[in-house]
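Lab notebook page, bench 4
Experiment: in silico fold of construct C2
Operator: M.H.
Input chain length: 369 residues
Purpose: comparison with the prior construct
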Amino acid sequence: MKKWICLAGLGTACAGAAAQSSITLGGTMDIGLRQVRNGSLGSVRSEVSGSNSTSKLIVRGVEDLGGGLSAGFYLDGTILADIGGAGASAPAGQFWDRRSTVSLADARFGELRLGRDWVPTHLVWSAFDPFSTLGIASANTFRSFAASRALGQAFGTAPDAVAANPTLRVSNALEYFLPANLGGVYGSVIKTAQEAGTTAAGFTSGDGFRLGWTGGGFNVAAAQFTTRNATGNQRFKDQVYGLSYNFGIASVSLSQRRWIFGPDRTVNTLLAAQIPVGLGAVKLTYVHADQSGATAAQSANDAHLLGAGYVYYLSKRTALYAHVARVDNKGAATFTIPGGVAVSANPAAPNFFGGQKSTGYEAGIRHDF
């Protein structure tokens, strides 16, 4: 009898513990068809993953510790849905490339988070882009390490360095997030550990912040992240600020992102709108990249992007979408829409692309699970 009483008590205790914690499995599958034409170099047709929402697998858990205190973890990895692969933008061996964190949160005092996470500047920049920096009309189209002199000089153009750069995510981070009860004010600070490594290997020595306010249809925010071990151990600054307002019939946003490294800088200015139409939404965007450098020729390499799209929601989880976009390069700029033929900035190369246009079309289906 005592044994059965003990077993019953243990079962009750386990049930109580389970009631205070949860683990969730979710994610997205997004596959589309794309065609990109890079000027006189020709066009490429392809099947792509993540143009409306990143294809991903998410595993997260939360434990209620009582008194407004909780602990949790978050694992988020890219799925290359068109080929069944993983880790689209990660260095080799990094499955949970988007986010891998453990946290301790208090409803009154905020959240402390450790691990790999998004940089504050990307969070602000993507919040003002109706395309969420995805697909052919992404506000990150000019985040090219070959075409943006500031990015190329700071981090290089090798594939590993591009994958490990700190303009999207950083590893070995310590973060603090403000609590959610501050009258619409939100924000965070971040510090990353170099651990005697290099940015090209994914070891960033940096720090930054994000601060914003939402209310009455407005969203106002600013962020900065400074990398202290870029090329030559010089500082690279990534700065963003923006404003949006929801008029009801449309949401309009204006934002700017600056990449600064020595005399080189790329200033991206975004003007965008999202308009509810029927069971979907029309998305419109214009992004201008203004480059400046040590010479007049470098400063002339500007570009702009025009993009439009429509998303039709079949349900809360499933949507159809179609996007069009065009990049116009000035001077010898070589910015392109992703997915086209390889281009070169070398005038002697057969695929020299300086000053040409890149156009793209895509359509696909997205399902959240």
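Observations: The longest helix spans residues 2-19. Helices lie at 2-19, 120-127, 149-155, 159-164, 296-299.
Next step: discuss at group meeting.
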